[in-house]
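USER: Fancy drafting a protein?

ASSISTANT:
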Amino acid sequence: MSLKRRTYEIVELAGPGDHVSRAFDIAILLLIALNVAAMIAETVAAIRERYGAALWALEILSVAIFTLEYLLRIWSCTIHPRYRHPLWGRLRFALTPMALIDLFAVLPFYLPFVGVDLRFFRSVRMFRVFRLAKLGRYSTALRLIRDVLTAHKEELAVSLFVMLLLLVTASCLIYYAESEAQPDAFSSIPAAMWWAAATLTTVGYGDVCPITPVGKVLGAVIAVLGVGMFALPTGILGAAFVERIGKRKAASAVCPHCGRSMDGESVA
């Protein structure tokens, strides 16, 4: 077996019986979890002052490992038939969502060394949260969420459009009902969108609320509509998850007599 192929097998998800690849996956998972914990702890001033040097050392070590992992993936991806071309195949692989997440996970560390303004660097340090997104490569649950969102993207897009339409309509109505009575709170339709969003999501912060009779009636109607509208994508996702999990269970169930899966396909 060539070195490139073995590298590809290790850095990708572990296959059955591949203990080295499994150990690599577990090590990366632990490193990601440690990085997320360190990123959270770094925001606490007392911890940052006392353990700043240790956190910085962990950052350097993590970036080195994640960078090596990324380069190994780029180098070995040509083993996959889709990325077989030595140049365009690697470029296509580098533009896949998971490869971009791997890149964004280490990019903030290198920006100052290529002449990027440090003030901009401080703003993009949030990209380190992409290390948490790297868990999607190893988590079955996150891959299930991705599959469900991909399979039902049209229905979710329609739900999002209807919710956006309702938000704009509610903002316009409440603006015309309340702008004269509360010119500061409802100074424009974009300003009214804050109230509409808080009401439609039933959060109801209470910092802005209607005081006119018409505004109160609109507020009640919009709040009721919000409950129904936000239940729509919830129902779509809930049904999709039940369907997908049912299919997985059926595919994994095997008849003890004929050796066929319960969905009718032979597994022998």
About this structure: Residues 118-124 have pLDDT under 50 and may be disordered. Residues 213-252 form the longest helix (40 residues). DSSP finds eleven helices and no strands in the chain.
